[in-house]
Amino acid sequence: MFKALFWLGSPLLVCTLMSLLAKGLKSEGYLVLQGTWKWALIYYLVVGLITRAKKNIPKVNLSAIIGAILSIWAVILINAWGLKLVPASLVQSDIALYPWTYDALKRYLFGWQAVFVLAGAVVFHVIGLHRRPAEKEAVSADKRSLDREEILEAALDKLDQMIGLEEVKAEIKGFMNQLVGLAKLAKVAVVSKPTLHMIFSGPPGTGKTEVARIMADILYGLGFLETNTLIECDRSQIIGKYVGHTEEKMNGLIEHAMGGVLFIDEAYTLSKEGNDFGQEAVDILLKAMEDKRDRFMVILAGYQADMNALLEMNEGFKSRIPYHLKFRDYGPNELADLAEMMLNLQGYETVRATEILREVIWTKHRRGEISGNGRWVRHLVDRILKEHAISIASDDREAGVITSEDIRKAAGMNRSRYETENEQLKKEALLQLDQLIGLDNIKSEIKDFLSFVEAEKEREASGISSQKMSMHMAFTGPPGTGKTTVARILGKLLKAAGMLSTGQFIEADRSQIIGKFVGHTEDNMKKLLDQADGGVLFIDEAYSLVKEGNDFGSEAIAVLIKAMEDRRDNLVVILAGYENEMKELMRSNSGIPSRIPFTFRFPSYSASEMSQIVRSILAEHQLELSLHASHVLDNLLISIRTFNGNARWGRDFVGKIRMAQVRRIKQSGMAVSQEITEQDIIEAIAKTG
User: Fold this and answer.
1) Residue ranges of the AAA+ ATPase domain (predicted)?
2) Distance between CA atoms of residues 490 and 471, nearest Å
3) Which of 536, 455, 465, 467 is nearest to 501 (CA)?
4) pLDDT at residue 333, as a whole number
5) Where residue 418 falls among pLDDT bands split at 50, 70, 90?
6) Which of 124, 207, 227 is nearest to 167 (CA)?
7) Can you list the alpha helix ranges (DSSP code H) found in 567-622?
8) Which end of the chain is more exposed for a tag (fewer CB within 10 A), N or C?
9) pLDDT tens track for 647-671
């Protein structure tokens, strides 16, 4: 309607303005143009030319110009034929001679000839100076729709190409499906516009900001946001220095983000304790998130624990933010993929260095030297490029081809030094394993396991295997059969193999885990897991955690199972105990056996092995058996056959031998001696029972 009035009314308006101008210049006889048709035609041509550069006013085209000329020409012909289409009183010489004087124009505009000028405008409008308004709006809508579809498609491609973040990707696509469903429902029912606000929680460098940009594009592409603008800020851009300054800054950011997304990084810092204006910013933000929830989206980002605390401290955020995306740390393979992608995007060839890149990142990861995820990778890539530039400046090496040496130098990993350290540690640990008395089957199985681990590490480094390897174990067998000792050695071997960052050994049992009140057990277990991270957590008599009763054993098992899954790439949990009881433990909770791929069965010691154990312990105390005592010991041990407690029995037995020796020496008045006699052995056996 407005456009029709514009096209029909503008000629009259312009003619009136021109006549007023003529009157103002006191030029009643001033001839601007001869003939109304000329002026009308000039008007349409000028407007047509102007509108070529105007997006909201239609463009001129040839058919429209012809239509205008023909319609106004019709006015001339009709007048030339002398048809009386206007009242005789208006046909005066002053009109004919001076058509642009004010008086003549005034009478002319209200005459019937004006009808023909308007007719020209109508034809001009209808024939095609521009498309019909409805048609044009439809085309514009189609163009906007096409733009949105292209942006949506590009955003989804970008999301799919991001390294890792599989859980986040799945949640975003589920969120999209929900929005698409709501849009369909809105066509057949009354549906309120959804609140879009979100929390992104997780460690730094995990892609939160990039995903926020993608979310802006997705929601714009789906039609739930007016723009795909992302306004990124943090505390420093929000909190002011004086009363009213914070309000001004916060409102400015909100207004700037209106129609799009406001992304606040480290949002929990707004609720810092103190006398600053953080709470003022929070109050303003909460009000906008409620009052304008259908006009923009707010994403609050930060560490998971801090964001959880923010929600607990402020119910306003919890009630206004329906969606929470959790970002986890990148795994070593994902970090390696990310580094390789960054190098390739900059035009560098990495084919020759892919394996060493993964090896370096896995080693760094297991040593606990990676912090910052994607940011750490960017710094590593920068160092790699620096080393590459230095190397090609001094050598005849090919520019743009990254080598293993570039990567090792960038990571600060001198090959010979680290390999020597690991080889030495492995050598020492294997020597300790071989020196253990008995356990021949266990030794063989541990070495086979180590070979398997090293092969799997090579598969991971080469990218053949993308699955995290679980190394958790069960050690079954009676007490005193070397389970704890083997576990200690295993930690060293896995560190030497680069599968654990520290190889440290943490030992615990039920008494150190089960608490006395709600939450105590969970805290105890988490502390032990944190202490053991990078090494081995050995839980002796693990079956005792699920004793019947109302204690908190099941709570401990739940925390343990979760950690065995989440930390399996840098933690080994070994559950130990009697074989039958350990089988019961496995049956009691299906989550345990599914996370323990390796079981080692420790047998009781034979009489021969117990004889070696006793001799070994005596040697530790610088004591030695006489020849006759040695024969007596072997014969007596054969007759006993079973040793309750195994190595512990042997240590207790040596204690009794030493007591017998002391009594014998004291009673005889002899000098202190290192020799153990037949009498000492027999007396010790008698007291053992």
Assistant:
1) 194-331, 469-602
2) 11
3) 536
4) 81
5) low
6) 207
7) 579-588, 607-620
8) C
9) 888 888 888 889 988 888 888 877 7
Cβ 8 vs Cβ 129: under 8 Å: no
Q: According to the 3-state scheme, what is the secondary structure of 217-285?
A: HHHHHCCCCCCCCEEEECHHHCCCCCCCHHHHHHHHHHHHHCCCEEEECCHHHHHCCCCCCHHHHHHHH
Domains of the chain as residue ranges with CATH:
2-130 (no CATH), 145-326 (3.40.50.300), 332-413 (1.10.8.60), 418-601 (3.40.50.300), 607-688 (1.10.8)
In the block, tokens 């809508």 appear at: 141
For range 249-255, the mean pLDDT: 92
Q: Which amino acid is at 157?
A: D
Element (H, E) at 625: strand 624-625
184-211: average pLDDT = 88
* 3 state DSSP class of 198: strand
Query: How far is Cα 522 from Cα 28, in angstroms, rounded to an integer?
Result: 100
The arrangement of strands across the sheet holding 230-233 comes to 230-233, 261-264, 297-302, 198-201, 323-326
pLDDT band (50, 70, 90) for residue 94 = very low
| Calpha distance 384→365 (Å, rounded) | 18
CA distances from 656 to 86, 606, 653 (A): 141, 20, 5
Decide if 252 contacts 339 (C-beta within 8 A).
no
As given in the structure block, the two tokens for residue 542 are 């693990």
Output the CA angle 310-315-317, nearest 5 degrees: 65
